[in-house]
Amino acid sequence: MPFGITEMRNVMRNLISVFFAFVLIATNACKPIQSDLDDIQIAFLADSHLNDIYVAFEDCDYKGVFNPANEKYVNIRTMASQLHSTRIFNENYFALRAALDDILKRGIEFVVLPGDFSDDGQPYNVKKIREILRSYTSKYGIQFFIITGNHDPVGPFTMDSGKPDFLGKDGRPQAIMSKEGFYNSQLPHDHPVVVTKDVSKLGYEQIVNILNDYGFFPQKDYKYWETPFSSYNYEDYKFNQAVFQSSISQRSYLVDSLGRRLPDVSYLVEPVDGLWLLALDGNVFLPSEKEDNNFKRASVKEGGEYSNVIRYKPYLIDWVTKVVKESERLNKTLIVFSHYPMIDFYDGAVEELKSLFGTGKMQLHRVPDKNIADQFAKAGVKIHFGGHLHLNDTGIKHYEDGSFLVNIQVPSLAGYPAAYKILTIKNPGEMIIETVKLDSVSGFNNLFPLYEKEYAYLQESGAEDIWNKDILSSKNYGDFLNWHLKELVRLRFLKRDWPEGFRNFMLNADGVALQKYAGVDKIDTTVSFKWAGFDMIFDFYRVLNADHLALNDIGSQRIAQYKSIINAELTKSCAHKPDVDSLSVDFHLFVRVFNDLLHGEPSDFFKIELEKGIIVDINPE
Questions:
Q1: Do the strands 393-398 and 404-409 form a parallel or antiparallel pair, or are they unpaired?
Q2: Contact in structure between 370 and 406 (CB atoms under 8 Å)
Q3: Is the pLDDT of residue 439 over 70?
Q4: What are the tens digits of pLDDT across the range 585-612?
């Protein structure tokens, strides 16, 4: 039948549609293929050190102390114990929830906890972590992935333990132990010891079984899951087989010639198509020389915790190498995390710090040996997130073959600066890292009335070096942690770490005196320079802990004043002569370290360009 006008128009319309369809296909073929992971975000929360302050112990009737602020009983540690520790024990209970609520508001679906999620692996704290995470998963669908730290577990197997410095009635310390006779007080005014198994320290098997939903074991909705000991590969992956091979009994390494083995709970998980999260268990335990069938954490005298991993768990490096190659073959985006750092976190100032403070101070034994980064970079790792140090820092190492390794230190929620990191995968070649400070925490001052009683008791008993009550005037959580660090410096660091002569010089100096000593040409004697040497020491620790996050807390004017001292001192050459007095040498070393810390890699808001191997500051000063 011959075509009419209408049929001809339909044919022409179809031909034009086909033509434009080919044009569209050709045009799209020239565009880069977009990854399903574009703009996916992962939050990293390190070292929360959760202590369940509202615990109801399961095997004893002790309730704790009554808090008139909210009419609840609490089991908290003393303020004195907090201000002598590098972490707080109580207020971080509120900080963890505040961080998770902030993550929820941002719509982030994946959260990584790289170790020390509990106070010391106690049953009541590990169960509380499970309760908190489970609520955010069941209500909001957030997925959590955890790896162990040195506080969880403290040892490979469950052990008795306890703390002598819980806060008891009338502001006095209260010992809580896991068995009778474990602690005998010599102080007549101490309360009777409370005994409960809830304060024992759990071993590997108990901890990961309680937290079995958070990466340690395969889940049905994971796309893939394996361990260093798995016998299958990606193509033949079966969930039931993964479950069978995930038992702790099949995930262990040989520790001695007697054939004894210990657990390693490292794992690789693909929670969503294309994203691989590699969790490395950096804990190493060795047989005790004093007790049969007992094990202790491998000592770290120098070189960092990964030096023991390389020595006693070399199979981990082989496995990491295999995982990297597989991720490249399968076109997966690989993110590695563990508890311990892989790169120097002191911005190249390690030797100066050793000369000034000694090798056993300032966490210098935890600084990784150069060969640690070398081995992981050689294995193909490009990005690693770590915790452990309660520091905010970024480190990068480059190699002649074009490889590189970026180590991102995630701050603690239990110390200055309380913060967490957000990784945004913009595309396979670009990662954005944002650091979120946690200054506002609801309930952070709920326990202050109890600390008032502790302070009154310390005064009445004539205790020495009582903590500064001004901490109880803190306006927010960030302010509270500023005070925590300030008191920690005063009560612990200055006494234990600093050379006596240099310490006394700094404590007796003010800003004008330090200008003169450094040789500043034009001395500023205005009111803006009326600060003490202790203030410079405290700000030194703030920069040491927070890196670029400390700059706003210190203020641009004070930073400029410090830089004038640094610049003047660094122009001197006399500090390198053998006849120079020790004070001049110490001051010069101190200034050099301070300068190095102020000029480290971006650590607040930055991007990593993977093809070029460079870090770019998104929010420069």
A1: antiparallel
A2: no
A3: yes
A4: 999 999 999 999 999 999 999 999 999 9
Q: Look up residue 513 and give its two tokens.
A: 């005196």
Residue 366 CB partners (closer than 8 Å, separation 6+) = 300, 304, 305, 340, 341, 388, 389
Quote the CA–CA distance of 420 and 98 in Å, as a whole number: 11
How many angstroms separate the CA atoms of 421 and 45, rounded?
A: 7
DSSP annotation of 163 reads E
φ, ψ (nearest 5 deg) of residue 543: -70, -40
Q: How far apart are CA 574 and CA 518, in angstroms?
A: 12
Would you say the C-alpha torsion 420, 424, 425, 426 has a positive or negative sign?
A: negative
Dihedral through CA 295, CA 297, CA 299, CA 304, nearest 10? 150
For 474, the token pair is 């803190």
Indicate whether this model's pTM tops 0.85.
yes
Region 385-411: mean pLDDT is 96
96's tokens: 């963890």
What confidence score (pLDDT) does residue 190 get?
80
Are the beta carbons of 183 and 191 closer than 8 angstroms? no
Instruction: Count CA within 13 A, CB hemisphere, residue 281.
Output: 26
Residue 15, both tokens: 């031909």
Per-residue pLDDT reduced to its tens digit, 292-316:
668 888 989 889 999 999 999 999 9
